[in-house]
Design brief:
The complex is a heterodimer of chains A (about 325) and B (about 300). With about 325 residues, chain A is of the alpha/beta class. Chain A folds into 2 domains: about 240 residues, 3-Layer(aba) Sandwich (Rossmann fold); about 70 residues, no CATH class. In chain A, about 30% of the residues lie in helices and about 30% in strands. Chain A is built from 12 helices and 14 strands. In chain A, the strands form 3 sheets. In chain A, strands 6-7-8-3-9-10-14-13 form an 8-stranded mixed beta sheet, with helices on both faces. A 4-stranded antiparallel beta sheet of chain A has the order 2-1-4-5. In chain A, α8 runs parallel beside α9. The chains are: A alpha/beta (about 325), B alpha/beta (about 300). Chain A: It holds the Pfam family ABC_tran. Chain A: GO terms for molecular function: ATP binding; ATP hydrolysis activity. Chain A: Its main location: membrane.
């Protein structure tokens, strides 16, 4: 029996835009064990959302998976017919999207909305749906579920909408929750409530979470394992303690160094320019990519992840690379 | 010369529709000293943006007074406000929406100068070019349009536009919340450098307590339109008194997995009191609103806390 709930191997995803092909995700491998929270961290455009959309096979129509495999519970998702995929989506894997406002149907009462999955996947009879909905609303922390049941999304605040999305996502008790920047638009106190809720659900049902974020603070609080993405590639991965104690890739160092931290009285924040990619090397190997980039095409030479210490991987160029001046 | 640049006394701004009145800012008093950065934190809906805009007189307050540089500006009309517009400038949150996509960067930067009738065409251009240099953008940005720039670069343009009139006072309303973390650090550093170089006084509004801590000298906490706590930053972060401030501070994710704390203080969200609270001085320039909590209780707790920190 495979102990990995999700395993992605050498995934490559590209997009066709006006006859040009752009590779958004390249050579991405990641795995999530049962009960784990895995963080995928990177900036906008690094390919983290595309990776998660590939898992659910919800890529935009001009995007396609070129290579690789994605197995969930031992089943290959990429070759799965749409009909079977429908059974998995929202049922065994569900997703909490970043934009709560755009993810809810404005003309439908939220109480009815959150039970759609139950109706479809679990074939819960109509008369029991309302009881289930009220229970879910209570689970995600509403003190007055009966009142919220009858409200429309625009009557709720941002944090409440995000909790509705969570209620919807956990309604079918999925084994894997993908949370795509679930708290980016929220205030700190609400962020904490939402993340605690996801964490509680995970522990309670022994589920797994793929947490997509750009905030290393959130990662430190909630994740077990961390993958750092840059320009469509994973550039470093390790467990959360190692990555904070001993980050190796300059990009990871830059991301950690750029968080303002009230406790250590920084005089100046480090920004990405304060780290050099080009000139530094690690045991004679050159870090890939050579420059800070959003673009996967800057990985011009073959590179791969190398184990620098047990269970700690960093991306280097395969061969000694000649330094080319970039003007 | 008076050390106070901005003084707001009992300031209120209400928004109303046909059925209800929303008290966005309710009885807020604060002073901003020359050369200082006052941070304002609070959640969405706490009135921090409205406070900034009211101090700038983009809104007319319902009650209260505002003094700028020793003169009252509470009731001035648009024409009389114009000289003050030059001295108070704003950096907006979203550089994707606050800059015109139709104008070139040069036109964006020169517009405030043109409106204030400053300089000749040539002088305005020189000024725009030197401003671009100051915020770290290449000179050829001058004839380019906004869509060619990234978020961080756009925010640099927003900063350049705010500073081109050489204001005395800048209100930065969530200037980095639309930016990625690594870019955020650059923009914050730039703002800090310019502030020191030009001796600016700032009101820095943000929901991110870590960012506010990095930028500010003193920090004001807003909650439901009221100012509930105000203190020098080290004092506030070390010794928060109001239960809401405590909740805010304990909710900041600590970027260190070794110090994960499952037993954090519960989040306290008190109800809004009927009347604006009074700020009470509790030592070390630390003020806290008094009618939301029992002042005796926290004095005892406060001494305990100070003891445990020494």
């Amino acid at each position: 029996m495979d102990q990995h709930i999700l395993q992605i191997k050498n995934l490559r995803v590209s997009f066709n835009k006006s006859k040009q092909k752009t590779t958004a995700v390249n050579d991405v491998s990641l795995q999530i064990e049962v009960g784990q929270t895995v963080a995928l961290i990177g900036e906008s455009g690094s390919g983290k959302s595309i990776t998660s959309l590939s898992v659910l096979q919800l890529l935009p129509s001009n995007g396609q998976v070129e290579k690789g495999s994605i197995t969930f519970n031992g089943k290959e998702l990429l070759k799965m017919p749409e009909k079977e995929m429908l059974e998995i989506r929202g049922n065994e894997i569900s997703m909490i999207f970043q934009d709560a406002i755009a993810s809810l149907n404005p003309s439908m009462k939220v109480g009815v909305q959150i039970t759609e999955g139950l109706k479809y996947h679990k074939l819960v009879p109509k008369e029991e749906l309302k009881t289930e909905a009220l229970q879910l609303l209570e689970q995600v922390g509403f003190k007055n579920p009966a009142q919220v049941y009858n409200q429309y999304p625009d009557q709720l605040s941002g944090g409440m909408k995000q909790r509705i999305l969570i209620a919807m996502a956990i309604s079918c008790k999925p084994k894997l929750l993908i949370a795509d920047e679930p708290t980016t638009a929220l205030d700190v106190t609400i962020q904490r409530q939402v993340l605690d809720l996801i964490d509680y659900y995970k522990t309670d049902l022994n589920a797994s979470v793929l947490l997509i974020t750009h905030d290393f603070g959130v990662v430190a609080e909630y994740a077990d394992w961390v993958y750092v993405m840059l320009g469509g590639h994973i550039v470093e991965s390790a467990d959360v303690y190692t990555i904070f104690k001993n980050p190796v890739h300059p990009y990871t160092k830059a991301l950690i160094g750029s968080i303002p931290n009230p406790e250590n009285g920084q005089e100046r924040l480090k920004s990405i320019q304060d780290y050099t990619f080009e000139d530094t090397s690690y045991n004679g190997k050159k870090f890939a990519p050579a420059t800070y980039t959003y673009d996967s095409s800057s990985f011009d030479a073959p590179s791969s992840l190398v184990e620098v210490e047990p269970m700690h991987y960093v991306r280097f160029y395969d061969v000694e690379r000649k330094v080319v001046a970039i003007g | 010369m008076d050390n106070l640049l901005v003084r707001a006394q009992n300031l209120s701004k209400y928004f109303s529709d046909s059925t209800s009145v929303h008290k966005a800012v309710d009885g807020v008093s604060l002073n901003i000293h020359r050369g200082e950065t006052l941070g304002v934190v609070g959640e969405s809906g706490s009135g921090k943006t409205t406070l900034g805009r009211t101090i700038m007189r983009l809104y007319k307050p319902e009650h209260g007074q505002i003094w700028f540089d020793g003169k009252e500006i509470t009731n001035l009309n648009d024409r009389k406000l114009r000289p003050y517009r030059r001295e108070i400038q704003m950096i907006f949150q979203n550089p994707y929406e606050s800059l015109s996509p139709r104008l070139t960067v040069g036109e964006i930067l020169e517009e405030p100068l043109y409106i204030q009738k400053i300089g000749t065409k040539k002088e305005r251009m020189d000024k725009a070019l030197s401003m671009l240099e100051k915020v770290g953008l290449p000179r050829n940005s001058y004839q380019r349009k906004i869509h060619e720039f990234s978020g961080g670069q756009r925010q640099r343009i927003g900063i350049a536009r705010a500073l081109i009139l050489e204001p005395k006072f800048v209100i930065a309303d969530e200037p980095v919340s639309a930016l990625d973390v690594s870019v955020q650090a650059q923009v914050l550093n730039l703002l800090k450098d310019l502030q020191a170089e030009l001796n600016l006084t700032c009101l820095f509004i943000s929901h991110d307590l870590s960012v506010v801590h990095y930028m500010s000298d003193r920090v004001a906490v807003m909650y439901l339109g009221h100012l509930i706590e105000l203190a020098p930053k080290e004092e506030l972060y070390r010794n928060p008194i109001h239960p809401y401030t405590k909740s805010l501070l304990s909710s900041i994710p600590v970027p260190d997995p070794e110090r994960r704390n499952p037993y954090r203080e519960p989040i306290v969200l008190p109800d809004k009191p009927l009347y604006p609270p009074q700020l009470v001085h509790v030592g070390n320039e630390h003020y806290v609103s008094a009618n939301m909590i029992n002042i005796k209780d926290f004095e005892i707790e406060n001494t305990k806390k100070q003891v445990s920190y020494i």
